[in-house]
Design goal:
Blueprint lengths: L1 H9 L4 H11 L3 E2 L10 E4 L8 E11 L3 E9 L2 E2 L4 E9 L4 E9 L2 E6 L6 E11 L4 E10 L2 E10 L6 E5 L4 E10 L1
Antiparallel strand pairs: 1-13, 2-12, 3-9, 3-13, 4-5, 4-8, 4-12, 6-7, 6-11, 9-10, 10-11
């Protein structure tokens, strides 16, 4: 089977097709890729019951604003805007480290941009840590203009995960975002 996948990759498959093949091999389902060019939020709704893993992937996502890129988890009651715990660092090309602790915070911080021409790359991984309490662990790896943000945290949802929101610091202008779940 790996020879067939390898032959297809060599035959010139697009990065979207490669991601779909990798997701299927891992037992994950990829959502439709969204390419927002206006507004400040992208919502993925209808996440099926029983999901224990969720990845939010960013491909050169860009907005016309500066500030934090945010992610919100939601259940059947809507998106939750409090109770996110995390700690992380941003490392820039000049080797400076910036610590960011949220105890608790009102969202998952992907990264911060101080220039509205910077594109966001990377992914945020959520894993169900305790299905009895709907506790989710989170890991962030986000790159933007010579800097990398990484963090870890947790979020206790009031119900089963059904949706996720990506919020830009300004109106979207380019790039794409998708989710994988399983």
């Amino acid at each position: 089977m790996s020879g067939i996948i390898g032959a297809n990759l060599v035959a010139g498959r697009s990065s979207g097709q490669i991601a779909a093949v990798a997701a299927a091999a891992a037992g994950l389902t990829q959502s439709a890729v969204q390419t927002p060019t206006s507004g400040t939020t992208v919502d993925f709704t209808g996440i099926p019951s029983g999901v224990i893993e969720l990845m939010v992937n960013f491909n050169r996502l860009d907005s016309d604003g500066t500030g934090d890129w945010k992610i919100f988890l939601g259940d059947s009651g809507g998106f939750e805007t409090s109770g996110y715990y995390s700690a992380g660092y941003t490392i820039s090309g000049s080797s400076t480290h910036t610590q960011d602790n949220r105890d608790p915070g009102d969202y998952v911080k992907m990264c911060n941009v101080s220039n509205n021409t910077w594109e966001v790359l990377g992914s945020v991984h959520f894993h169900l840590a305790d299905d009895g309490t709907n506790a989710w662990s989170v890991g962030v790896l986000c790159g933007v203009a010579g800097a990398v943000t990484y963090s870890a945290g947790t979020k206790l949802l009031s119900g089963e995960l059904t949706q996720v929101r990506v919020e830009a610091p300004g109106d979207f202008v380019a790039g794409s975002v998708s989710i994988l779940h399983g």
